[in-house]
Records
---
Amino acid sequence: MSRYWMMLLWQKLLPDVASILRVDPLQKERVVRALRASGATVGYFGDGINDAAALHAADVGISVDTAVDVAKQSASIVLLNKDLRVVAEGVRLGRRTFVNTMKYIRVELVPHLEMSCRWR
């Protein structure tokens, strides 16, 4: 079966699948690519050499500090502790920082724009 038909098959089957077990490294990468091709944002958590391709193919690859070097290099994020709450807290802090930055821009920029409009 060609790669194209395999990709279509994965895209068709994946929405109804709850878990995927006993897959080899190439199949892990194919699952991630099929999910991305179907429009999903994919995060993948892995720490072994078999996870490197899927970590690289995912939108966000997450690994831990105790993982093998290849997995850490392929990951977008390397956690120092084996705890995903760190990622959730980072997202919360990032959103708070974004809101505060937008408030600052609004407070500082709007008066200057009003003044420049008056001078014309």
Note: The beta strands are 43-45, 60-64, 77-79.
---
Amino acid sequence: MNIIKDSSDVKESHRLKIKRSFIGVTLIEITIGLAIAAVVVAIAYRGYEQNASRNQVIEDSRLIAEMMSDIINNFGPSSKFGDLSTAIVITSGTIPSRYIDRTTNPPTARNQYGGEIFVAPVGVSDTFAYIRYEKVPKRNCMGLVMLIAPSAQGLAVRPSVDNSPPVAAADWNIKLFDTSSTVDLNELNTVCRNSSITDVNVTVGFSKS
């Protein structure tokens, strides 16, 4: 009788060991599966983030280029660059309605990041103007600048807290206001990768002709 009982105990013990072993393997597999899933999700998110950033840069560069073209066509021939302001540009229809904030008086323009789109003449000039595109995320900084650089005569990139107008030549820290100048890649890299800031203001200078 005892022998039979002992045999049953051995079988039960063996069964429990197998069950525990099965459960242990299953948990390991689940853990590995979750780890792989986490990596896949991270890669997918990174790809989504890069794609979203690329689309944002394309939208920004297209808007800025179209604004420059419209301002030159609408105000260049009449030599009214010296009178330019954001409100005047909004009234002229240069800025698409989806970027216009009519809750303010006068209306203002804001980009897809909520930053202001500011237009003004360079100093007291009737020949040169600039568009300041504010609060551009740091991750989009270099891509945006490189896309608009060929059509810009001057480029400045500053931390978003710096709204000072470009007056002196040194204010155009990325590309001097000169048709023969090129983008200062070292300065651009330094500003765009500044670890102490999260976004920047990109200022684009251009002439009426």
Note: The helical segments are 2-75, 86-91, 138-148, 185-192.
